[in-house]
Amino acid sequence: MAAARSALASAGRAANEAVSFVVFVLLDALEVLLCGVYKVADYVAEGAWRPCYCSSSAEAAAPGKIVVSERGGSKVVSVLSSTKVHLEDISDTLYTRPSVLSSTAATSPPSSSYSSRCGGTVRASASAVTVHSAIVQILRGKAGAGDGEHKPYPSPRWSDCHCANCNPADTDRLFVHVEGPPDGGAAEEDVLFIHGFISSSGFWTETVLPHVSREARARRRLFAVDLLGFGRSPKPADSLYTLREHVEMIERSVIDRYKVGPFHIVAHSLGSILALALAVKYPAAVRSITLVAPPYFPVPKGEAGTQHVLRAVAPRRVWPAIAFGASVACWYEHLGRTVSILLCKNHRLWELAFRVFTLYRVRTYLMDGFFCHTHIASWHTLHNIICGSAGKIEQCLEVVREQLTCGVTIYHGSDDELLPVGCSYAVQSKIPRANVKVIDGRDHVTIVVRRQKELARELEEIWDTKRT
Question: Of 405, 460, 436, nearest to 279 (Cα)?
Fold first, then answer.
């Protein structure tokens, strides 16, 4: 019987690989077609040719417009001396996404040139740096450097939703849900909740926060934030959504605005990376760190960290379904944009249809978080945070281990098909004092959504634990 099950499992894996190969070869071809379609559509709708990450980067070498300088060991790109981006904040997975056929033919791309499926390149050497044209176009928009040839991106773009929720009036700060002590008294400490990828503060405010006890609230303020580009927060079309930008917006919108003192951090999935970055930046203020399904993939020696994480998160397989969705989101810029137009641009229609279908008996906060973002926000956040932080998260974990004394607790669902339990144990291998709790029968979402009462009680115990 065991031999039969093993043979059946092997046959299933082989079938999955064969079907996946065919499907993703077809998706590669569709991506090339959509590239041309969107260039024409953008020109018609916005009056300008918009470079994408499968475009050539030659335009970036235009003299007098791009300045590359060294600052503290960091390469900083400036456009017209006003707008800057640190090159190490930008993941090469944005433009290094070889097709299935090219990946099969060659195990890895040349180290001196990165090529996407449509032929774009990015090169770097000691004497010169060539920056991808799509990045330069975004920086020109930030600098207000639009001209007849290079117009700034409109925000929102034609392919984005134009509703008030998706386009808040306050574009300088994130949307923050705040709950203070019930009696209006002064809080002794604060708690910051950070959601994951294509989600929103509702992931916490509709689940855990209502179950936090009155005693716990009496001494704390609870903050749940919509990250830049998601939920009811601003979604600038000229942002690269780097780790630095996300952290700075949280600082401006929460820590500085509300004068946050000692605080605890609770973060889910992608939010775990931001939580670690904040903890490293405020080591004396952080009282505890709670990570739920952190996306940490240790990089083997000799491999490019960003590419390793890309293949781990998005293995280009049709099954399980969540892996297929992640693969489409990670590997296909234009196909992802198509999905965004169908779902996010028309999210109000989908939400209404769902409410009618369920006779208004099911809350839609998960749909609100899933649909309320732009493709530019999700695409850049996915690559620059999850894939691009491969090296940074290693450094953050080392700092938390060596310089912070706060408790670290990690939750992971045993049935998580997107991020395996090994991710949490890998974090524990870097921070031995971390307490890993694997919850049986829970996946990437139900680790919180279906156990919110238990999680609220457990969080209160964590917050009440005193460490020296």
Answer: 405
Which residue among 288, 416, 424, 443 is the active-site one?
416
Given 150, 177, 380, 444, the catalytic residue: 444
Widest Cα–Cα separation across the chain = 71
Q: Is the model's pLDDT at 144 over the cut of 70?
A: no
Is 412 assigned a catalytic role? Answer: no
Query: Above pLDDT 90, what percent of the chain?
Result: 66
**Candidate list 195, 347, 375, 380, residue with the active-site label:** 195
What does DSSP say about strands 220-225 and 176-179: parallel, antiparallel, or unpaired?
A: antiparallel
* Active-site residue flag, 269: yes
Q: Is the pLDDT of residue 320 over 70?
A: yes
The model's pTM is 0.90
- Token pair for 462: 């964590």
Q: How would you write the chain as a 3-class SS string? A: CHHHHHHHHHHHHHHHHHHHHHHHHHHHHHHHHHHHHHHHHHHHHHCCCCCCCCCCCHHHHCCCCEEEEEECCEEEEEECCCEEEEHHHCCHHHCCCCCHHHHHHCCCCCCCCCCCCCCCCCCECCCCECCCHHHHHHHHHHHCCCCCCCCCCCCCCCCCCCCCCCCCCCCCCCCEEEECCCCCCCCCEEEEEECCCCCCCHHHHCCCHHHCCHHHHCCEEEEEECCCCECCCCCCCCCCCCHHHHHHHHHHHHHHCCCCCCEEEEEECCHHHHHHHHHHHCCCCEEEEEEECCCCCCCCCCCCHHHHHHHHHCCCCCCCHHHHHHHHHHHCHHHHHHHHHHHCCCHHHHHHHHHHHCCCCCCCHHHHHHHCECHHHHHHHHHHHHHCCHHHHHHHHHHHHHHCCCEEEEEEECCCCCCCCHHHHHHHHHCCCCEEEEECCCCCCHHHHCCHHHHHHHHHHHHHCCCC
Q: Which residue has the higher pLDDT, 95 or 408?
A: 408
Provide the token pair at 250: 């949280």
Q: Is 444 a catalytic residue?
A: yes
CA–CA gap between residue 273 and residue 419 (Å, rounded)? 14
Candidates 99, 200, 201, 269; catalytic one: 269
Buried b (16+ CB within 10 A) or exposed e, 155-183: bbbebbbeeeebbbeeeebbbbbebbbee
Q: Residue 311, CB half-sphere, CA atoms under 13 Å: how many? A: 15
